Amino acid sequence: MSERPTHVLIKELSQVLVQLSDKVVDNFLDALHAVKHQGEHGTHQIRIIEDEIDTEEINLEERCLAFLATKQPVAKDLRAIVTVIKINDDLKHIGALAFQIIDRLPEISSEMLESFEFENIGMHAGEMVKKSIEAFISNDSILARRVNAMDEAIDSIHRKVFKRVTALMKSPDSDVDQLIAALSISRYIERMADHATRIAGEVVFLVTGEIVRHTEWSYEQLITT
User: Fold this and answer.
1) Does some domain include residue 176?
2) Is 59 among the domain residues?
3) pTM for the full model?
């Protein structure tokens, strides 16, 4: 790690995080598109990009750890670099969701996907990730709290998908395997939104010192709300 000022190094690491987040979100949305359009070539490219993302995430984490070891930051600088590490971990999990989506390709038809409008829902979740990263870069706790509020819309959609899938499964001629795959994809999108909410929570803590707890929906809540 060079002898440049601490704030310069933190800014550089933050910019790497921004570039990585854009790549992760784009790959996630590409995975939804590939499944919808049954694009085998697209899934191959998604896997290649995800491997690149894995490498970049490891490199970023190593740079952050080297920063901690050599600069020994305190106070706000320490919170900033720890926040970068935590956000990087959330992006890693979002990236893994793209793999899970394309693994569902053989199990679900494009018509089934179209009926649930997963691409549009995925774009909403992707926007949450982008806004949470924007909040981090600008130290904007107000924007971060807006991301938390946006999560309710995704939770509501997932509950509706759950209820619709369970209702359709009651039909004797229903394709249960496809419906299960649809429910899984809905869950992957919800998980992406959850990670965006966690990122936003880290931003609120970084800026204000307030700890924001995110509560995930349980199976019992899905069937009773």
Assistant:
1) yes
2) yes
3) 0.87
Write out pLDDT tens, residues 24-57: 999 999 998 888 776 666 788 899 999 999 999 9
- pLDDT of 224 reads 54
3-state secondary structure the chain: CCCCCHHHHHHHHHHHHHHHHHHHHHHHHHHHHHHHCCCHHHHHHHHHHHHHHHHHHHHHHHHHHHHHHHHCCCHHHHHHHHHHHHHHHHHHHHHHHHHHHHCCHHHCCHHHHHHHCHHHHHHHHHHHHHHHHHHHHHCCHHHHHHHHHHHHHHHHHHHHHHHHHHHHHCCCCCCHHHHHHHHHHHHHHHHHHHHHHHHHHHHHHHHHCCCCCCCCCCHHHHHHC
Give me the number of domains the chain comprises. 1
Domain boundaries, position 118: 6-224
CATH code, domain carrying 62: 1.20.58.220
For residue 113, is pLDDT > 90? Answer: no
**Residue 180 located in a structural domain:** yes
Identify whether 1 is part of a domain: no
Report the distance separating Cα 174 and Cα 170, nearest Å: 7
| pLDDT higher than 90, residue 186 | yes
Looking up tokens 């793209």 gives: 98
> Is 24 in contact with 95 (CB distance < 8 Å)?
yes
